[in-house]
Amino acid sequence: MTGFRLKTGGEIDRARPVTFTFDGESVTGFAGDTYASALMASGHMVMGRSFKYRRRRGLWGAGVEEPNVWLDITCGAGFAPGRRATTEPAQHGAVTRAATASPSAERDATGAFDWFGRFIPSGFYYKTFMWPDWHLFERHIRAQAGIGTVRRDFTDVPPADRIHHHCDLLVVGAGPVGLAAAVMAAEAGARVMLVDEQDRAGGSLLAHPAVIDGQAAPDWLAAALARLAAAGARVLMRATAFGSYDHGLVAVNQRHDDGRSDTMWQVRPHHVLLATGAIDRPLPFANNDLPGIMSAEAALVYLRRYAVAPGRRVVVATSNNRTGAVAQALAEAGVAVTLVDARADATAPAGIALIRSRIIEAHGRRGVRSVTLADGQRIDCDAVLVSGGLTPTIHLYAQARGKPAWDAEKAAFVPGSTVAGMTLAGAAAGQFTLAGAFAALPEALAPLGLPLAAAPVTGAAPRYEIAAMWPEPGEKGRVWIDLQHDVTAKDVELAARENFTSVEHLKRYTTLGMATDQGKTSNLAGLALMGALTGRTVPQVGTTTYRPPYTPVPYESFAAGRRGVRFNPVKRLALESAHRAAGAVLREYGGWLRPAFYGTDDSAILIEAKQARESAALFDGSTLGKIEVMGPQAEDFLEFVYYNSIRSLKPGRGRYCFVLSETGVVFDDGVLLRLAPDHFIVSCSSSHVDGMRGLLEEWRQDRFDPSRVFIHDATQHWATLTVSGPQARAIIAGAGVEADLSDDVLPHMAIGAGRFGDQPLRIARVSFTGDRSYEISIRATQAAPLWAALRQAGSDHGAVLLGMEALTILRAEKGYLIIGKDTDGTTLPQDLGLTGPLAKKSEEFIGRRSLILPDAADANRRQFTGIEVTDGLGPLPCGAHGVEDRDGRPRSLGYVTSSYFSPTLDRPIALGLIERAQARQGEEIAFQHLGQRRRGRLVAPCFLDPDGGRLHG
Amino acid sequence: MQIFTCPFCGPRPETEFHFGGDLGNARPEGFRAVSDDEWSRYLYHRRNEKGAVREVWMHMTCGELFAMERDSVTMEAAPGHALHGDAP
Ligand SMILES: [Zn+2]
After folding, report:
1. What is the ipTM of this complex?
2. CA-based, 20 to 30 A from A441: which of A87, A309, A734, A738?
3. Residue B12's closest chain A neighbor by CA?
4. Which structural domain, as residue segments, surrounds residue B79?
């Protein structure tokens, strides 16, 4: 090639050269160039490789429709993989490489794919790589797949901004029609937002000259933008409206091109006007993918905006009457042009050679060298510009469940059904002349209900005329339909032969339209050919479902600020800084950031667990749920909520209880405290507070009188500091807590009151360690002095600070379960050995009926059990399956749910859910994990102090 | 992102809401009288209708259950109404 820069013209700044590299070679363009225009101006023809066959490919388009040329761009510290060369402004100093080729577009090492391409038809993967095993092939195929490189030295990009925006009218597309609509609405008083994906407003006016309201296009454009600014409209360039979502949400991703991450706009307009234009289609002929064959509309853009001509001897081939203008513009730029028009009555602009025919084959290797026409003549050329007709850009309309209608005269899908809150105008609405589009604007804007000034006027243009040309069954040679995914007419024929004739099957079987260009230039040709093969019209074949995004959107735009600590913010303890000062390593447990252990490494865990048994332990149990339930119906309400009976619970006492879901599955456990006849506190598990609050609210409102029972989640208002161990009582007294802690007044499972200074305390004699234990609740803001006093007193008695890791060992020694860890989504209370309430309780409760379904009585249920390691090889892996061999194959009996080394017992302990565990106590079974076999015996879950004497010790 | 209208708080983003099931899926009462079939239908059978549906939702931020009519095809959602008396 062949492409070259004209001496004058274009929007480029010739005083500011821009130099970058492409596949290691230096390229110089000008400020205002895209990478594509600079590469084309410097004579590059091969700029990428095709996805599947690694065919040489050159530029097809000038914007988002580009299927072929994708770059990995490194510029300064920034790295952008897989970007279209046609939409990226060329940056000085950038290093670019063809994202689809290795090592370069010119010398791709996998070019041999094309040689046996005819052996890689559609469905090749499904048919070939399944035997003997897909995984044998996967690694090699993955290496070939995808566009762009993921760099291992990638450094994170700054977070994108997200802006929520409301307006009366969102206009998508700042071409002449969108601009005119925005001006009319804004000057009538509407709050208007106008967005366009290009770097400047103007749309088709940037390539097609026009006179509007008596002004030349550039003057009218400048005036329109000034009027919008004066009327207070918001105009965003480089901003792509890529998706329309439920309830009128339109998502717009805005680029900045200055190192900042993008801005994601979530716009909720009262009305959307789509003035998104149309995209030119290819023509079907053999080898229509050769470099040098490009869209005629795109060539006009390169000529007008960047002063680049595609070649010196150019064939312009068309099916419609819009392309003569392209031929004329090139001729005026000094290019030798032959116009090949498929229409029998075609005419050509003065001075242009016209042949009424069509191309049947292109020739060349590294780029197009000649074409053969249907009448047999062969024309030498160095570029071929084609126009297969316009496809309206109706993606946002179709995403909003608009049903496209087939317009046979225009050979295009145009908007059909109406969509509330959305209208279309201009080429997107199938109005392919500017005068016609302006005339239709008042109707498109009518839903605003505003008195509008007149729409602009422009000279009449000829009606759009097209003789549609689709790939036909039995085409000779390889006629390419989807350039980005390498789908040919033969692939569509194969799909038809194998009965993948539905449009959605066609898409999935051939991958037609599934590439990152989303088939903007290819879908229609595929549908038309499938129609011809199966005796259906294009509308009978129909379109696939349109889904966002219209163009690729970086992940950081969707993530916006929700990254790092803001991805899923943790709840924090009132005493966090005190724990940090004491050397705590903090980790997340059920949404809370809590001390895992105190010390520099996890050897601290066993020391904490051992010392807690020997003297005492202090730990921060503030995360424990504290949902207050009050009112005259509180007792009735909780009797229904809990599996256990609570009517017999006396004020001043607590009871360990279970809550089930309606399916009978254990939902939560915890101690229910009764402060007064009509006042309870639900001490649910730390990570289940939100779930329990939802469950309580649901039943309160659904089944009880919401004016007679009330729920209040006070979890975060109270800090709960726990003192556990044989020395607990002495420590609390030594800390200056005023309370009667004698066992007569405050026995196990009793609730007492006390004071610390001027602060009231609630003291619950509840134990999760199995030792004598006091949970002291104090207002969260006042917790620090009490914690300091307890630590001071504790140091006199050898008390240790206990993290969550050691606490879970202590509770496992006692066989205390953790819901969701030692139970799963099938565990019923009887699987835990809790059958008493079901036998004794007479009243209805949540999930009761489920406990007597046939499945609940199945003899083979998995049941909660302790597991003693018998092979002397240390703790079992958590998650290891208990197995039995049946017919020579291992069969799972369940699995290990908790497993630790107990420093107090000096041996490994484990808990698990195992089939028929209650009947198999004492039995030794095998455990399997990652191919390794272990042995263990099923025993009672409580490994330490089965009589419970330590609770009172 | 859909917008649902809580009868107590007004229009809010869908992420603040929790689905509560079909409206009118009454709990069969009397565990001794209810058959396995009845109970299983209550637990597992959903109407899953195409078009107009009536559902219970909870607005998690205010904790109130309410009834809402939606269209499961067009996703249009009518303003919710309170289950007990009138919303303020
Ligand atoms: Zn609400």
Report:
1. 0.96
2. A87
3. A247
4. 1-24+49-88
